[in-house]
Amino acid sequence: MSILLITDTQLGMALKNVNSEQWSPKILKWLENLEPSEKELQNLNKILKVINENNFEFIVHAGDIVNEIDKSNDLNNYKNFINKIDIDIHHIPGNHDVGLDPNNLSKEGLDFYNKNFGKDFYNFSWNGFELIFLNSSKFMNYSNQEVYFEQIEFIENTLKNFSPGKRLIIFMHHPPFIDKKDILKMGSDRIHEKDISYWMFEEKIYTDFFNLFENYSVDYIFTGHLHINLETHFNDTKIIATSAVGVPLGDDPSGYRIIDFENENLSYNFFEI
Ligand SMILES: [Fe+2]
Questions:
Q1: CATH of the domain at 252
Q2: Domain count, the chain
């Protein structure tokens, strides 16, 4: 049994950015002559087809469900999509889902997320792993100390239930860390023209983050946010970002990932839609 991982459906992003200087050529090519929202919905329908043709145990959405939380049409379109799905879908928020300004997590943004999608951090067991779902915007916006420490406390209390060495898989929207060498392998030392420090936690924050887990084995962290596929690592933790269901921003197409655990071996292949 496997998990379907989708991320960055980001409904509304194509329309919002189709005339932007940076993204217009990329988006126009991606649209294949469809209207922006039509293309985004077509991709959601392709995901529905993948769900119907497979036997997934459950689905994870790694965040940026919609592009703007005040566009009720985009939210309704996404809800129509999940209403057609019979299996569980576990969401985690992206930066676009927890603030009108995607760089700033806000109370109204958190309320929007909690009201529509439930808890923004939680955990459950799967195949001997503990799966931990986190709101990574709380690390990016750590100056909001109250919400930052509330989630840290959740992690500490959750880990107390497990023996040292427990194998963990974390799902969250932002990668906590990206090793520059892994970008260089892709022929660039920047992502979307921005230094990699823009895309991950600050050093103090990712150091504290990984220290929380020092007695446990965080085998994998699955993320979205980058709109490209990227594999990197921090010590023994593999960090795997998946391209978007919506607008892709690099050379990788729109798509999804299947996480499979068979014969004690975890695979995580990406598929184009
Ligand atoms: Fe994002």
A1: 3.60.21.10
A2: 1
Which residues are found with C-beta within 5 Å of the ion, ligand 1? Answer: 64, 94-95, 225
CB 222 within 8 A of CB 170: yes
66-79 pLDDT per residue, tens: 999 999 999 999 99
Q: Give the Å distance between the CA of 163 and the centre of ligand 1.
A: 33
Confidence bin at 97 (pLDDT 50/70/90): very high
The answer to whether the beta carbons of residues 98 and 138 sit under 8 Å apart is no
pTM: 0.98
Q: Specify the pLDDT at position 91.
A: 98
How far from the centroid of its chain's Cα atoms is residue 199's Cα?
A: 12
- Give the residue numbers spanning the domain of 13: 2-272
Those residues with Cβ within 8 angstroms of residue 23's Cβ, 6 or more apart along the chain or in another chain: 17, 247, 249
CA of 53 to the centre of ligand 1 (A): 28
Question: With 90 as the cut, is the pLDDT of residue 1 above it?
Answer: no
